[in-house]
Structures are given as C-alpha cells and as structure tokens.
Amino acid sequence: MKKIIARLLSISLLTSIIFANQAVANNNFLNSHLINKDTHCQQNCTLVILADSDNKFTLINQQRAEQRFSPFSTFKIASSLIALDLGIVKNIQQPLTFDVNKYPIQSWWPQHWYKTPLTLTKAFEYSAVPIYQQIASKIGSIKMQHYVNRFNYGNKNINDHIDSFWLNEALKISAKEQVLFLQKSYHHQLGLKEKTYQQLKHIMLVEQTDNYKLYVKTGTGHIHKNEVIGWYVGYVENAQGVYFFALNMSAAKFSAVTKSRINITKYYLKQAGIV
Question: Has 12 been annotated as catalytic?
C-alpha cells in the first residue's frame, strides 16, 4: 500500500511539474512582446494577442500591427452592436432582407445571401454584404458617426458613403486597435445596452470545446488592384482568462488568405496554450 501511495504521489508531482512548465512556457510566449523572424507570419502579416488579465501584448511585426487598413467585414462586429442598440434589428433571430433595386444581386454573391431572408446570426456568419449595407442605410450617417466616434474605431472616417465606408478605404483600423475595441466591447465599456453585448457574443461564437470558447469575425477585400487583405479577429475564453487577437495578412488572391489567416492564428494560439 505504501508503495502504491508513493507511486501515486510521484505521478501527481510529475504532472504538476509538467503543467507548471507548460504555464511558464505560455507566459514566456505571451510576455515576449515581439516575435521576429517567424516562418508562419511574415512581412505581409501581423498578429496581435492581448491577454486580458494583465493587458500585455504579444506582437508579430509591430510596424504592421499599428498600420491601419480597411476593416471590411470585421466592421460587422461594430455595425451589429449599433443596429441592436438602436433597435433597428430587434433581436438576432429577426429575419432580414435588402432592397434588390438598391443592391442588385451580383454574379459573385453566394446564393445564401439573397435566396431567403437571413437572421442577424446567419447574416453575420455568412458576412452578407447587402444585408449589412441595408442596415447601415437605416442607421444613417449621423448616428453611425456618433457610434464610430464613441467606439474610437480606427480613424473614425465614414465619409459620405453610408453603405460602403468600411469597404472603400475610408474607414481604417489597425490590428492593435481591433483588439482594444474587442476588449472594450467584452467588458461592456462602449455605453450600450447590456442586452446588446450579450447578443453580439452569441453571434460571434464559432467554436466551443471542453477547454475553450472561440469568438471570431473574418474580413476580406482588395486594398490595391493586385493585393487582398484578410482579417481574422476575435477572442478566446479559457480557464486562464480571456485573450483578444487580431490577424491581418495580404496576398495577391483571396484564396491565399481565406484559409491561411485561420490556420496561422490558431497555430500561435496553440503555441501559447490558449486553445
């Protein structure tokens, strides 16, 4: 019996050491502040991770992390908050449509954007551009500018194109600013109704395991004639806390960023022990 107890204690101690060493490695990763010469995220890519517990950043390519780009569909996080807060969208299950005369169906659109009405949950998941253009038109320039200013969202420029300013190089935001915006939203610090934050959290959830929950939004679009940017922004909840992240990367084609942005982000989140 004494031998069995001693063996169990030995195993318990070894397990504790392994987890302790793993925790130290994770902290070293997150406290490294700046990662250089990396083979996964190179000069055309940046990743920012913000640990909510101590507000420490991990950055890959610091200069690019502070460079502003059009948010494209990641702005749907902000516009969903605004629409819900104003009551333009009553709840996340409300069926939504758009004016086909104002926004004619394009050949490149996926059918699920227009075949049937979409709830806000599905419009967010599918990144349904015309649905969100319709929502922005209903919000209007004055109220939209008010909220964008309140959110301190990037350069806060919505110009005079209420239904495309997040797509046409007017509004721009950096990866670092994305995570700070997400952190304020997470902690209900944007001056919105409590229910609004809860509904956004529901539509952002894309993955749930026994160890973590992943909340994200993608965004993609042309920043130059032969250059596409892909965004992947969100946060992870796990037993250690909350980690906000934002990745953007650029390439010549959409296909080069759509899957890579997810794979690269998850690679680093795994390296850090976050997922």
Answer: no
Closest of 123, 166, 129, 174 to residue 145, by C-alpha: 166
3-state secondary structure of 265: helix
- Give the chain's residues under pLDDT 50: 1-28, 31-38
* Crossing angle (nearest 10°) for helices 141-151 and 76-86: 120
Q: Is 21 among the domain residues? A: no
In angstroms, how far is CA 252 from the centroid of its own chain?
22
Given the residues 32, 53, 73, 164, select the one marked as catalytic.
73
Could you read off the pLDDT of 110-155 as tens digits, one per residue? 999 999 999 999 999 999 999 999 999 999 999 999 999 999 999 9
Number of domains in the chain: 1
182 part of a folded domain: yes
Here the CATH number for the domain that contains residue 61 is 3.40.710.10
Q: Note down the domain range covering 55.
A: 31-271
Long-range contacts of 18-23 (CB under 8 A, 24+ apart): 22/273, 23/273
